């Protein structure tokens, strides 16, 4: 969620910060009365929120690492500790107790922490071989789904289990993918003008599904190989063969993480 050159203006950064806060806050599933029993009380959550807003760039990440090393399960780390601090960050923003630049930085730190913790979230979820399964989806706002439909059919012919989602709006697509809980998501984009929509979607998916690995494909990748780095995709493929190789390599990594 970093600014790269002038590609993401302040308005876009504010929107992405709001996306992080909204999505992470929604995963706080443990009632407040149970927080102390979950080893993440309100004082600890408030301290983490303070660290997200502090001048020390590494303070919040170090607190999360410390909680993890102390034995806090990944589910509690995400649903209670990080989500609680993120929701508190949004509340401070709404009450004008934190400035817009502070909140943008804080939300960026949350995003970075979730990226760093992805392996921990993933290894605790892997109880069976993940298999060759992925969700393929079109970018909200783009009307052409022929390319990704053909890609899904090609992958199925090669033995992959592909769930295809087309024509969904941003919120609906994020929640649909969260419900499916995949380890891999393939996004297709034909338009370079969709950069912000892609970045917003990837931010939402990363904070809603911390384990997810995202590959970007489509004509926009062929036209601009740098687009994947700009929107924080894990990989990009301008053609089916290279996309299949990248996904197969990631599947092998998943199986190693699962000890298989």
Question: Could you walk me through the main structural features you see in this protein, from its secondary elements to its overall organization?
Answer:
This protein is α/β, with parallel strands linked by helices and 260 residues long. It folds into two domains: 10-116, no CATH class; 133-257, Rossmann fold, CATH 3.40.50. It is 58% helix and 9% strand. It contains twelve helices and five strands. Helix 7 links the parallel strand 1 (133-138) and strand 2. Helix 8 packs parallel to helix 9 (195-208). The radius of gyration is 19 Å and the shape is globular. The model is unreliable at 2-6 and 30-37 (pLDDT under 50).
What is the gist of this entry?
This protein is 58% helix and 9% strand.
């Amino acid at each position: 969620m970093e600014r790269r050159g002038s590609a993401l203006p302040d308005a876009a950064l504010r929107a992405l910060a709001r996306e992080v806060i909204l999505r992470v806050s929604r995963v706080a599933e443990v009632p407040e009365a149970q927080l102390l029993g979950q080893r993440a009380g309100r004082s600890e959550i408030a301290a983490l929120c303070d660290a997200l807003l502090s001048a020390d760039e590494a303070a919040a990440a170090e607190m999360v690492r410390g909680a993890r090393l102390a034995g806090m399960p990944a589910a509690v780390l995400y649903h209670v500790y990080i989500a609680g601090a993120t929701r508190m960050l949004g509340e401070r923003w709404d009450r004008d107790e934190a400035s817009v630049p502070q909140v943008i930085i804080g939300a960026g730190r949350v995003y970075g922490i979730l990226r760093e913790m992805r392996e921990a979230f993933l290894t605790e979820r892997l109880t069976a071989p993940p298999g060759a399964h992925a969700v393929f989806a079109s970018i909200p706002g783009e009307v052409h789904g022929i390319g990704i439909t053909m890609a899904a059919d090609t992958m199925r012919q090669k033995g992959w289990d592909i769930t295809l989602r087309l024509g969904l709006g941003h919120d609906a697509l994020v929640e649909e993918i969260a419900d499916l809980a995949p380890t891999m998501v393939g996004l297709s984009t034909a338009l370079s003008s969709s950069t912000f929509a892609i970045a917003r979607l990837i931010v939402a998916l990363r904070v809603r599904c911390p384990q997810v690995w995202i590959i970007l494909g489509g004509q926009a990748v062929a036209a601009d190989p740098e687009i994947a780095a700009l929107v924080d995709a894990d990989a990009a493929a301008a053609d089916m063969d290279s996309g299949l190789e990248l996904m197969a390599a990631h599947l092998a990594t998943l199986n190693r993480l699962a000890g298989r």
